[in-house]
Amino acid sequence: MDRLGRKPSIAAVILLGLSMVSREAAATTVFSMSTSLVPHGGYVNLTWKVTRTFSKGKSVAQILLVCPTVSSKVAPTVSDATDIFEGPAQGATITVGPLLNMRDVSCTFHYSVGGLVYLDQNAAKGQWTFQFERGQRQAMQEHLSLTSKLTEMRLTWVSALSHSPIVTYRPVGTQGNNKTVQAIFSTYTNNSMCGPEATKTGPNNFINPGYIHTAVMGPLAAATDYEYSFGDAISQTNNWTTFHSPLQSSSSVNVVVFGDMGTWGTSIISDNGKDSPVPKVLKKVQDLISSTRVDLITHVGDLAYADGMGKIWERFFWRIEGVANQVPYHPVIGNHEYGHVSSPSPNDPSNVPGGQSYNPPWGNYGDESSGECAVPVYQRFNMPNSTGSNSVFWYSHHLGNVHFTYISTEHDLSPGSTQYQWLDSDLAAVDSSAQPWKVVVGHRPIYNSQTNWTSETKVGKALQQRLEPLFLKHKVSVYFAGHYHSYQRSCPVAGNKCAGTEMKPHGTVHFTVGTAGAKFSSSPYDETVGWSRKTLLLNYGYLAFQTVSSTTMKLAFTDIDGVQKDSVTLGRFLELEPTTVPIPTTTVPTPATNLPTHATEPTYKTDFPTKGHEGGGGGGGSSAAPIVGGVLGGILLIALMIAIWKRREIRQRCGNSTDGLRGMKFTRQEDEDDKDGLINDEA
User: Of 317, 492, 549, 646, which is the most exposed, with the fewest CB atoms less than 10 Å away?
Assistant: First the structure.
């Protein structure tokens, strides 16, 4: 309305809008880009100059990267952006990248200030539109993994097209000795996921992953350097990448361990900022590979933190490409890959009954995967098969003088469950004369002393109750985990106490190595626990270990500055502590709520809350809740009637006065949380 309170006419509103559009269109004068043909992972320089002066609070321009290119007549929004970069609103030249080929024909940058995208003549003519050098024939995201045979190596990669995909390989220095193997391929869609946000499509949700190819090279000569080239029959890459063939039994091995990586940096979308620790950690590992034979990289869960965003998986695989294309890269499942308690689905690739994500009432298991339920990991990582293994969820293999067992702490591990029985059998079947070292890898730690994480402590105690008896029974030397974004090392431990010494252990040494890039855990450590040997709260880096012999293992943690922050030499776990040391039993307390116990298959709860999980998870509901609620309601009603009757009786005795209640003392007995140090299965 004007000053006289009159409403403007429709024509006036239209004229005002047209004048605003024309002013916005005239605000930009120059757009230029250093190149319109960009390599995968490359950078470009963007230049712009703006004639107008922006109002206060609009001094920063957002440069939106939109892939694929949209119509020049349609202004995209921030939600349409694959990535976002910033610079001064009036003009600048900035370097943007890395720009990742996500199999789109072309991409375009858009200039935006204050939430408005400015369309101008230069942008409409494609001044800020570019293509990738190899386009849809780009083969990318290559990574190696072992198979069940030590004479083989598997290669997995992604491309937009699939025309006779092949891998060519040969021993280094034998150019005339090429061998070629055909690859197979697969893919997945948003309908392959278990629930939102992963089932939604768009630049910030599910995007087409392309074709996922896998091929096995072999038979390979032992401990030999090979090189390979891959792609399709039409556009195979000319680059050759080197790897070491797997070590045979009894050989000493060199392994790198880290976890909880993500693609963290200036934002969850872009890690091009200098503050991102992820490329720094991977650069140190790459330097180690260049100077030392590294036989295996183990990622202890929480890989990309994609949480339903396909572009984050693209960035993660591009990041690890430089190490995973030279050394087998073996992950375990973390909560951010798998958790989907609110969206049970038959799409769950771990084949749990009813597609129901594990959610015990004592746990804090939640929806951290945003509906992905590990489908991207299952599809993109091909792990060694062993008797009773379950793809990427639980599996094992030999390498040199070590037997590696990978478990899912996101699935049931109670005695009688499928995974528990497999773990027991797998560890029992190891030939200690060939593989004297037993190493188990999981995501959630059993021993960790960070405070203020009550829900995590309960999960750790439950895992201890289930796993520690097996570790002691089968003499597991080391357990690697992550989940906590920090580093901690225990003594050889059994039953919460140090058992023996590092060189003569009577228990398992536990490592937490959640140091690959995710933001640090803020909670401090409890330094009073007797089993803790080393804690590091603010150090990104990796743990490397070498089995020097059948009885000696050396381990060292190195930070992103190349400083060794912790080191230890361990003897092999050969015998248990004398019987005077308490060792937990495998007895599982009877469930207090009379829920079914496990026989040969895990039992999963069927009703899950959708909100309010502590620490990303929480307890589940029960189909008996209405009955229980009715009974409790009846009891409360009877109690209320008795109280009213008693109050009336007291008033009658005290002359209808409440003075007779004064001076009476009421006490309340507080339940002590986990007083005996053990968690009841259904507590």
Answer: 646
